[in-house]
């Protein structure tokens, strides 16, 4: 007995079988829900998925065999999983934009919360606070971070290098509130209890930023090809000049990108600032003089301690959230753009 | 290349004699004559096959027949498309992004690129052994052999599975060397043994054709001869096509040889001449073939 | 990887720098000292974090229970918080790991190749959103949306202790907090897993397909075993992040410090981090020390988790 013609092809489902089934089921479910008057987006989606998956599996199993059916089922489930992962992002962005636009006006950006218990007012103090606190944090963490990265890639050897690498990894896992507590403890040791200063927040954020700056700078410096360094040494250039005048300029775009991404990461931090910089209503641009507010803490306080007109406070909170997300997005996109556009072509 | 540790107690490939001992009783019982008659090696026929990688025309107008129970060697200098042709026979070519096949590839008169054809089934029927042995590193020797076998034969009882594993390993001339350590990782074998493990794995799913893409190029000469021995043994049960850049190997191990070359640099590869191996190497009809086999070029 | 090239540079740099002079030039000495000092500073910083925290936590450790907030001993104060922290993080990991692996495999193997990079970017966007925004979203959107589901759970699965109910009507429950945390840590798990999945050697994948395996069978046979340690370490990194997360949990949970496995009711455990966030601004004296002590406990827990994660990664790199 020999294999006959057709042994290679068992039945096959039509080309877009999966899509057809899902579309068909969706239509059915929608019709059913509308007819019984209980249509809701979530219910619709859940039912469509719950029915489509077994439907595709059974149909495929009957026609194509169980292995192929399992393949289809898993593939479809993974598509669903991806959608499930992206859905919160879409929902969140939609919510923030939808609710944040209400107060996205010039008043928001030019007035502080001083004396505001009802409507109006703005977050100017918070925006300035954000810029100052994050700026000082960057001023602290960037030099130290880049220098440490240079140590790891250009100078490091032996136990110190191993220890540093390991502990930088560990530092990336410090909870943000612990960083805040550390900054508080540090300043309290020298300046007494109950102290609240803008610069304390900067120290806390710096603790969070340093490992990020080190990691990304290290990656960038590693990519700079060795032959550039060797060419420089061969010309008799001392090592420190090679590093500062050859390696770093080549890596500059990448270093800047890394710093921008680190800033994007900490600019929205609330917890460490709650315990360090405190809460304040008016503009303060001196990091060494008393409390300062950043945008994230502002968002939190507007929610937590709304004034007399609750909805107004909530509106301000959403607008602040929208502003925060916009800043983070802009920073991330700008960082990538800089890297792509100005990053030296590295072969 | 994976680090292979050679077990001190393992027979080296040099000490190996083809294992012609009778299979264990269980294996014999299951392997009924009925089953044996059911499987017969299949015949490939390519008709005007053109192979593309995106816009790049890699191989042009290949028409050839690959006969059952013979070893057909595909030879030619690098880049002339012989591996591309081989990979079109088990539908692996299309795994490359943008890869395309035109023409007919008939397996026993059925076009494997037909609309109703399941590529997964094609790949089961047409097995492949790769240039560099690739046993699955997280699996033991036995698990490697049974890797896809247990998927194609659902509900296989343990005794049957063990019998199938033994049968495959015997068929690949590897059983005696590994029978006491079937649960050791596949990567603990020597290069030659790993390649025979891959062959056992490929035959375990009961294909009709075996494709081999330069199976010995990563192996030492002794291991190479062991594989060639094995190929001689395998051809009685399968259709075999082997790509090799080693002309001596083609002369030793094959019955039919197909010579490919590039018309010109930048042009697609083409089939120049195909004939009985002896004729190709002693009296080819085309000058290009003669130039190649006599070492004048390539 | 690039590790070897770094060592070459260091040796090469030092050899050549020495060759071009005999004695080290002033510039080199200064610069290399600056660089080394920076490196040491970082280590000192980390040590400092530990030291200052311990110093500040000390008074709380040695105080009498009577003087402490709520009159409890330090252990009694922190234990329920630690419980809440671990519970929330566990729920998050439980939900995020399967989904994160699915997303990772989707991007590395299933999505159309041209879209893969953009899709990866979209998933990574989840990581960029500040946790306060997640908190607002959780309490204003996800919580209320979850209420009918919570009711359904208590009605139909109420015999399981997790869903014992009575179902909260605001959605401010442990399960919602865990869900939000899961969304926050998903990009970490997904990115780490995806990185390794896409590096699965081609010849192993082709080997499986050439045997006649379907794509899913190949993924299960080759890709997942190859990426197993990445999934584990990614999950632990995600766990570490979830343990330390503050604002989202602070806003969503109105913690009452109970120890309970009931995920759908009004009465919820608090976490260490959210407890600090809520009480610190208004606290003074010994209460501050207590909060810092709890922060120290959190620090140690996340430290251990992260170290294990890194160990798993480094063991893999040695293979």
Structure description:
The complex is a heterotrimer of chains A (347), B (298) and C (319). Chain A has 347 residues and is mainly α. Chain A has 13 helices and no strands. Chain A has helices at 17-35, 41-64, 66-100, 106-110, 124-155, 158-171, 176-191, 198-223, 226-234, 239-266, 271-274, 295-304, 310-342. The radius of gyration of chain A is 28 Å and the shape is flat. Chain B is built from 13 helices and 10 strands. Chain B has helices spanning 25-30, 33-38, 82-89, 119-125, 141-146, 149-152, 158-171, 175-178, 191-204, 221-234, 247-253, 277-282, 287-293; strands at 44-53, 56-66, 71-75, 99-107, 110-111, 126-129, 209-213, 239-243, 256-262, 269-276. Chain B has a 6-stranded mixed β-sheet, with helices on both faces. The radius of gyration of chain B is 19 Å and the shape is globular. In chain C, 77% of the residues lie in helices and 0% in strands. Chain C has 11 helices and no strands. Chain C is flat and about 70 Å long. Chains A and C meet through helix 3, helix 5, helix 6, helix 7 and helix 8 of A and helix 1, helix 2, helix 3, helix 4 and helix 5 of C.
Shape of chain C: flat
On the 0 to 100 scale, the average pLDDT of chain C is 85
Helix content of chain C: over 70%
Terminal residue distance of chain C: 13 Å
| Largest protein-protein interface | A-C, 103 and 101 residues
Mean of the pLDDT scores of chain B?
84
Structural class of chain B: alpha/beta
Structural classification of chain C: mainly alpha
Helix count, DSSP H or I runs of 4 or more residues of chain C: 11
Tell me the radius of gyration of chain B.
19 Å
């Amino acid at each position: 007995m020999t294999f006959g013609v057709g042994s290679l092809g068992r039945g096959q489902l039509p080309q877009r079988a999966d899509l057809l089934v899902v579309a068909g089921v969706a239509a059915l479910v929608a019709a059913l829900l509308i007819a019984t008057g209980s249509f809701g987006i979530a219910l619709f989606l859940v039912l469509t998925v719950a029915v489509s998956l077994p439907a595709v599996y059974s149909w495929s199993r009957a026609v194509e065999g169980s292995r192929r059916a399992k393949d289809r089922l898993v593939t479809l489930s993974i598509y669903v999983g991806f959608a499930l992962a992206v859905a919160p992002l879409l929902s969140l962005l939609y919510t923030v934009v939808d609710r944040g636009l209400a107060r996205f006006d010039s008043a928001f950006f030019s007035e502080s919360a001083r004396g505001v218990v009802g409507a109006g007012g703005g977050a100017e103090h918070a925006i300035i606070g954000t810029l100052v606190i994050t700026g000082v944090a960057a001023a602290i963490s960037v030099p130290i971070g880049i220098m440490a990265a240079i140590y790891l890639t250009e100078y490091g050897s032996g136990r110190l290098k191993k220890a540093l690498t390991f502990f930088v990894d560990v530092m990336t896992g410090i909870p943000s509130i612990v960083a805040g507590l550390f900054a508080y403890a540090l300043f309290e040791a020298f300046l007494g209890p109950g102290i609240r200063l803008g610069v304390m927040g900067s120290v806390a954020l710096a603790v969070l930023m340093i490992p990020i700056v080190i990691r990304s700078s290290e990656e960038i410096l590693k990519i700079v090809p060795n032959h550039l360094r060797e060419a420089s040494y061969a010309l008799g250039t001392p090592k420190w000049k090679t590093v500062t005048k050859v390696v770093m300029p080549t890596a500059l775009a990448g270093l800047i990108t890394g710093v921008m991404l680190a800033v994007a990461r900490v600019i929205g931090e609330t917890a460490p600032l709650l315990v360090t910089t405190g809460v304040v209503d008016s503009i303060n641009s001196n990091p060494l003089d008393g409390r300062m507010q950043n945008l994230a803490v502002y968002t939190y306080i507007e929610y937590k301690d709304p004034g007399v007109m609750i909805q107004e406070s909530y509106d301000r909170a959403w607008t602040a959230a929208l502003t925060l997300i916009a800043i983070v997005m802009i920073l991330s996109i700008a960082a990538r753009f800089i890297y792509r556009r100005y990053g030296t072509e590295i072969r | 290349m994976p680090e292979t540790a050679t077990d001190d107690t393992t027979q080296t490939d040099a000490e190996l004699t083809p294992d012609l001992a009778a299979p264990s009783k269980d294996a014999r019982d299951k392997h009924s004559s009925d089953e044996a008659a059911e499987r017969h090696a299949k015949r490939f026929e390519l008709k005007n096959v053109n192979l593309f990688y995106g816009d790049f025309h890699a191989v042009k107008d290949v028409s050839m027949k690959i006969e059952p129970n013979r070893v057909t060697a595909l030879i030619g200098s690098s880049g002339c498309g012989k591996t591309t042709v081989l990979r079109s026979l088990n539908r692996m070519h299309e795994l490359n992004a943008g890869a395309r096949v035109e023409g007919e590839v008939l397996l026993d008169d059925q076009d494997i690129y037909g609309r109703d054809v399941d590529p997964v089934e094609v790949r089961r029927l047409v097995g492949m052994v790769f240039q560099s042995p690739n046993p699955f590193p997280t699996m033991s020797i036995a698990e490697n052999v049974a890797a896809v076998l247990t998927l194609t034969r659902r509900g296989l009882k343990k005794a049957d599975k063990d019998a199938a594993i033994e049968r495959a390993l015997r068929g690949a001339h590897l059983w005696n060397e590994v029978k006491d350590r079937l649960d050791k990782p596949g990567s603990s074998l020597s290069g030659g043994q790993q390649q025979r493990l891959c062959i056992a794995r490929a035959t375990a799913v009961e294909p009709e054709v075996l494709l081999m893409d330069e199976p010995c190029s990563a192996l030492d000469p002794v291991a190479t001869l062991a594989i060639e021995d094995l190929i001689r043994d395998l051809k009685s049960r399968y259709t075999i096509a082997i790509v090799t850049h080693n002309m001596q190997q083609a002369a030793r191990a094959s019955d039919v040889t197909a010579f490919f070359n590039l018309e010109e640099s930048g042009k697609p590869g083409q089939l120049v001449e195909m004939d009985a191996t002896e004729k190709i190497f002693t009296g080819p009809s085309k000058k290009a073939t003669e130039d190649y086999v006599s070492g004048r070029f390539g | 990887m690039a590790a070897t090239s770094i060592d070459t540079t260091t040796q090469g740099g030092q050899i050549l720098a020495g060759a071009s002079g005999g004695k080290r030039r002033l510039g080199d000495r200064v610069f290399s000292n600056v660089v080394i000092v920076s490196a040491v500073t970082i280590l000192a910083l980390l040590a400092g974090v530990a030291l200052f925290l311990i110093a500040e936590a000390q008074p709380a450790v040695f105080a009498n229970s009577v003087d402490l907030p709520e009159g409890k001993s330090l252990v009694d104060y922190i234990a329920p918080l630690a419980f809440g922290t671990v519970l929330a993080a566990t729920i998050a990991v439980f939900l995020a790991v399967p989904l994160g692996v699915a997303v990772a495999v989707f991007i590395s193997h299933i999505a159309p190749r041209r879209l893969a990079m953009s899709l990866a970017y979209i998933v990574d966007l989840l990581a960029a959103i500040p946790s306060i925004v997640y908190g607002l979203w959780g309490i204003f959107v996800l919580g209320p949306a979850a209420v009918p589901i919570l009711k359904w759970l208590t009605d139909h699965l109420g015999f399981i202790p997790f869903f014992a109910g009575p179902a909260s009507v605001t959605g401010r429950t442990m399960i919602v907090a865990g869900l939000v945390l899961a969304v926050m840590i998903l990009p970490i798990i997904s990115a780490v897993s995806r990185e390794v999945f896409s590096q699965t050697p081609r010849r192993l994948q082709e080997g499986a397909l050439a045997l006649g395996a379907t794509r899913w069978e190949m993924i299960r046979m080759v890709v997942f075993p190859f990426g197993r340690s990445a999934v584990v370490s990614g999950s632990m990194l995600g766990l570490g992040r979830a343990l330390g997360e503050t604002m989202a949990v602070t806003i969503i949970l109105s913690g009452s410090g109970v120890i309970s496995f009931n995920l759908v009711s009004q009465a919820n455990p608090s976490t260490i981090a959210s407890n600090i966030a809520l009480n610190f601004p208004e606290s003074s004296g010994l209460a501050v020390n207590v909060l810092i002590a709890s922060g120290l406990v959190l620090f140690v827990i996340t430290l251990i988790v992260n170290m294990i994660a890194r160990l798993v990664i480094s063991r893999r790199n040695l293979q």
